[in-house]
Specification:
Blueprint lengths: L21 H11 L4 E3 L8 H10 L8 E5 L4 H9 L4 E4 L4 H12 L4 H8 L5
Parallel strand pairs: 1-2, 2-3
Length: 124
Amino acid sequence: MGYNDYQWKISVPAKFFAVTTGVEGIKLMKLLMPDIVFLDINMPGLSGFDCLKIIKSDNCISKIPIIIYSPDVDEVIFHSAIKNGAMTCLKKQGTIKDLAYLLNKFFVPDKLSDRMNYNAMPFV
């Protein structure tokens, strides 16, 4: 089942792009200059942490917010990600609808109070 088969939406205009390696991701970031990046820590070649360090050391893309989005998020990974420049971490679980719900909490202006409560948690 592909992403287009799911019935979900977020309340802000968005385009989604996916890559399979960190090198591809960094190249695409430089080309598209996205508003935000979801970065898995488990990728072939460069790890997500290696990519995060490269991204944060490159003046062209260093200001793009990075959210670590991985099934392996725990307290140690959370603190390491924040220390290395990630905005936050989300534990990859649930469905694409669950991710859409979280995106709405982060990016829809009338959900500010929800976002404030959400940020109080170290990771999800």
